[in-house]
Amino acid sequence: MPRIAYVNGQYVPHQDASIHIEDRGFQFADSVYEVIALMGGRLADEQGHLDRLERSLKELSISMPIGRRAMQFAVREMVRRNRQKDGMIYMQVTRGTAPRDFKFPQHKNSALVMTFYPANFDVALRKAAVKKAITVPDIRWKRRDIKTTALIAQVLAKQAAAEKGAYEAWMVDEEGFVTEGSSSNAWIIDKKGNLITRPTANNTILKGVTRSALQALCKKEKIKIVERPFTVAEAYKAKEAFTSSAVALIAPVVEIDGRKIGDGKAGAITCKILDMYMDYAKDHGRKQEGWHPK
Question: Which residues are catalytic?
Answer without folding.
Answer: 147
